[in-house]
What does this fold into?
Amino acid sequence: MIYYLPNILTVFRILLTPLFIYILFWGGANGYPWALTIFITAGITDIIDGYLARRLKVESSFGKMLDPAADKILILSAFVSFVTMDLIFLWMVILIILRDVLITAIRYLLEKQGMPMVTSSVAKAKTGIQVACVIVILCYLSLKSYQVYLITDLIDGMYLILILMLITVLFTLYTGFDYFFVNRSAIRALIKSNSQ
It folds into this structure.
């Protein structure tokens, strides 16, 4: 049973996503702090399941596929929610989604040809920055719900949410370009094989 724990935690993180969204929009007066708590809890499970998979030496292809998918589901759900709340721009989230779809498609095509995609060294940093961005925005919403306007007005006045999100988008796109650079030989071989 313990050997399935990393994947169980990953599935649990996916199941937290609809709860996170529900609390974010319909959680009442304390909805934002609870949404923040749920998001941080999900982030902790991400750290634990990765640690356990390495420690127990039970890393599997299924787990390697499911773990980043769980991250994307949770993080993108948060970003889309923030768009509907008029906190960030839709084009920012579209760029993040397009980057993820493109990299996932290329990974699939390479692996189909027996050429595993080399993971970018900055990929984990990308996830960390996205998580940090979501946490900051949830903290901002929590402060606003508790009417701590001295801080939230300062954040609004300096456009800190939009600046932070812009940095997140730019770094996300950078990691996409880095994936292309690191795997450029394999991508060339893939294009050549498909053109013949």
Notes: The mean pLDDT is 89.
